[in-house]
Amino acid sequence: ESGTELRTAAGGRAALRMSSGVELRLDGGTRLAFEGTGRARLEQGAVYVDSGDQPGPAARDLVLETPVGSVRHLGTQYLARVDGERLTVGVREGRVALEGRSVTAVGGAGEQLTLAGGRVERAPLSRAAADWHWIGDVTPPFRLDGRSVEEFLSWAARETGRGIVYASPEAGRQARSVTLNGTVEGLAPEAAVTAVLSTTSLRPQIGAEPAIPPRTTRSLPPPTFQANPA
Q1: What's CA 204's distance to the chain center, in Å?
Q2: Which pTM was predicted?
Q3: How many CA within 13 A on the CB side of residue 125?
Q4: 9 exposed, middle or buried (CB, 10 Å; 0-12, 13-18, 19+)?
Q5: pLDDT tens digits along 124-161
Q6: DSSP H helical segments within 66-188, as ranges?
Q7: Rounded to an integer, what distance in angstroms lies between the CA atom of residue 150 and that of residue 202?
Q8: DSSP symbol at 81
Q9: Distance between CA 167 and CA 71 in Å, rounded?
Q10: What does the pLDDT look like over 48-67, one tens digit per residue?
Q11: Which residue stretches of the chain are H helix?
Q12: Are the C-beta atoms of residues 199 and 187 closer than 8 Å to each other?
C-alpha cells in the first residue's frame, strides 16, 4: 500500500508477498517504503526480490528506487543493497536494469553490479554465494503434504540458486513418484533438503560453491543438489 514504510531492526529480518505475487525479503537494518503500485524506495539496508519463475503480467513489475539509482527487474531474482552512496545489485536469475543519474546498465544471472560515483562495475557472483545465505533465514516454508520429492527439490534449488542432478534414472523416477508429508517449518532450504530426503530412499549430496578465479568476469555454473539412491 502506498505510504507504508517497513523497517527491520539490526538483528531482524522479514518476508512478505505483494498482491502482484512479487516476493520480498528484508535484511536486518533495512528501510523500505512503498510509493505506489509497482514502486518502492530502499533508503538503507538490503532487499531480495523474487518476481516468480514464470513470465507474469505487467502488474508484477516493480521499480526499486534508492538514493543512488533505480533497479527494474526483467523477470528475475535479485538482491539490492544500499550502503551510503553505493548501490550493489546481485542477480541470481533473469536480468535487471540499473539506472543512475548518468549511467544505465543491464545485468544478468551470475553477475553483481555496483553503482557508485556515477560508474558501474561488474563482477561475477555465484548464485549460491554467501551473499545470499541470509535469505534462507526468512524463506517461507514449503508445504510438503501431497507434494513429490521432485517438486520439493525444485523449490529448494530455486531458493538457493542451485541446480538438481539425479545420480541415475532410477533416482529421478523415485523423486517424481514419492510423495511427502510433514513440515519443514523453521528450517532453511538446505537444511530442509537434508531433513526431507532422510525420510526417503534418496540421499542428498550438496555441491560446494565454486571458487571464482581472480579477475574473471564470466558467470559460473551454479552448484547442485545431487539426489542419490540410498
Answers
A1: 21
A2: 0.86
A3: 24
A4: exposed
A5: 998 888 899 999 999 999 999 999 999 999 999 999 99
A6: 149-160, 169-177
A7: 11
A8: E
A9: 39
A10: 999 887 655 554 689 999 99
A11: 149-160, 169-177, 189-197
A12: no
* Distance, C-alpha 72 to centroid of its chain: 15
Residue the block writes with cell 568476469: 217
Which residues lie across from 120 on neighbouring strands? 115
Confidence of residue 196 (pLDDT cuts 50, 70, 90): very high
Query: For 87-90, which contacts have Cβ atoms below 8 Å and span 24 or more sequence positions?
Result: 87/114, 87/115, 87/116, 88/112, 88/113, 88/114, 88/115, 89/113, 89/114, 89/115, 90/125, 90/129, 90/131, 90/132
Q: What are phi and psi of 102, to 5 degrees?
A: -140, 15
Supply the angle between the helices 149-160 and 169-177 in degrees, to the nearest 10: 100
44, β-bridge pairs: 31
